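Report of the visiting student (M.T.), summer placement. My assignment was to run the structure pipeline on a short list of targets and document each run. The first record concerns N-carbamoyl-L-amino acid hydrolase (L-carbamoylase).
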Amino acid sequence: MINGSDQFLLYLLLHLLGVFAFVNGTSSEDDLMKKTMESFSGYPNEPSTPSFLSVDVETLQVQIDELSSFSDTPAPSVTRILYTDKDVLARNYVKQIMTNSGLSVREDAVGNIFGRWQGYEAGLAPVSTGSHIDAIPYSGKYDGVVGVLGALEAINILKRSGFEPNRSIEVILFTSEEPTRFGIGCLGSRLLSGSEKLASTLMNTVDAHNISFLDAAKSAGYDMDSKQDISSVFLKKGTYSAFLELHIEQGPLLESEGVSIGIVTAIAAPASINVGFEGNGGHAGAVLMPNRNDAGLAAAELALEFEKHVLQSGSIDTVGTVGIMELHPGAINSIPSKSHLEIDTRDIDEERRNKVIEKLHESAIKIAQRRQVKLSEFKIVNQDPPALSEVSIISAMENAAMVSNLSYKFMISRAYHDSLFMSRVCPMAMIFIPCYKGYSHKPEEYASRDDMANGVKVLAITLAKLSRE
Ligand SMILES: *[C@@H]1O[C@H](CO)[C@@H](O)[C@H](O)[C@H]1NC(C)=O
Ligand SMILES: *[C@@H]1O[C@H](CO)[C@@H](O)[C@H](O)[C@H]1NC(C)=O
Ligand SMILES: *[C@@H]1O[C@H](CO)[C@@H](O)[C@H](O)[C@H]1NC(C)=O
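After the run finished, the C-alpha cells were exported:
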C-alpha cells in the first residue's frame, strides 16, 4: 500500500508525464485537476472513497478463482480446452465482467472477444491489451488469465480515477493460445495477424476425436462455413496503435532476483521440425552389428548432434529440445526399423535459429548415409519469426514502473505469446510479473496479490499514456 502523500506525488508525476491531461469539453483542465486532487486528498482516511490508481486486487483474485472453477479437472488444477462447455462458460463469465465495466463487447468469427472503452477520438486506432483464458490439461489459473482479468481491472482503475482516454482502449481475449485441441498454438492471434495458411488449414483440421474445427466451433456458437468466414477475422494493419500484454513470467528470474516488473524487449519464436528415419529392423539377437541399419540409433545420434549445434550457436539465447523420440516397433528384442523425432528450437535471432535448422538437416543427411538408413522425413512444421518490442512502448512501461516506485528489469520472453502474432499488425510490448518458483502449466502455478497489483498498475499507467498519444 502507498500512503496518501505518495499517492499525491504519484499523481503529480503522472501529470508531468502528460498522462493525465484529462479530456473534457466543458471544464478546463485546471478545474478538473483541482477537483480530482481534492477528491483524492482524503485518502487513506476515507477508505470507502475509491483512491487514485489503487488496484482492487481482492476482486481480481475472486474473479481469477471463479474463472478457475470452469474446468474439466478438479481444483487446484485447471483444464479448459477450446470450444468445450467449460470454455464457453468461462467466455460468458469474462464477457459479463466486460459489460459490467461498461465496455462494448464484440466477438469475431472464431471467438476472439473484444471489449472496448470508447475514447474521446473514436476515429483514432485504439490501444489494445489482453491475453488468453484457455488452459492445457491439469494446469494452473494464472497463465493468460492475469492478462485478461488484470487488463479489465486496469481499465476499472482508470475509470475510478476519472481518466478519460483519447484513443479507445480495447481488451482482447484471444481464442486458443494453447495448441491442446487442434495442435495450433495462438490460433486466434495468428488469424488476427492475417495468416492465409491457417485460414485454409482450419477448413480441414480435426482434433484427436476426429471432430472438425468447424463443428467444434459451431457447438460453441461460432458458425463458419467457408474460408472467407475464417479470414473475416484478419485485422487490417493500423487497426490498433499498440498492443500490450500482461503475463506471469513462467520462469524463475524475477522472483529469485526480487524484481517486481519484467519489461519484455523481445519474444523468442519457436520452430518445430519432424524427422523420421527408416531401416530394415530385425531380430535383436540374429542380426550382427556390422549388418545393422538401426533407425533408433540414427535418431539418438541426431539428438546429440542437434544439442551440439544449439550449444555452438554463439548465444545463450538459442535453445533446442528433442521432446519426442519414438521407436518402432518398440520391443526390447527388435532392432528399431523406424524412428520419429519432434524437435523444437527457439531464439530471438531468426537467422541464428534458422542456421541451427540447416545444420540439423545436414547432420540428418550425413547420419542417414553413414548408418545406411533412409531419412524418410525432414519437415519444418513451423518457423515463426521472433518479435522485437517497440522502443516507445518499452519506455512508457519503464516510466510507469518508475512513477510507481517499482523495481524492473528488461528481459526476453522465451515462451511465446499472442503478442508474438500481434507484433505483425501493430507495435507491441509485454509486462511480466513474478510467479512462484517460475512454475507454470501445473496446478502449483501462483502469482501473489502484490505482484498482480504491481503489474496491473504498470499496465494501467502505460495504457493511459498510450491512449493520449
Ligand atoms: C473422420 O471423419 C470423417 C468425416 O466424418 C470420415 O470420413 C473419416 O473416415 C473419419 N476418420 C477417422 C479416422 O475416423
Ligand atoms: C520506494 O521503494 C523503496 C524500496 O522499496 C522504499 O525504500 C521507498 O520508501 C519507496 N519510496 C516511495 C516514495 O514510496
Ligand atoms: C487526441 O489525439 C489526437 C491525435 O494524436 C490529437 O490530435 C488530439 O489533440 C488529441 N485530443 C486530445 C483532447 O488530447
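Residues 23, 120-121, 124, 166 surround 2-acetamido-2-deoxy-beta-D-glucopyranose (ligand 3) (CB under 6 Å). The radius of gyration is 25 Å. I thank the supervising group for their guidance throughout the placement.
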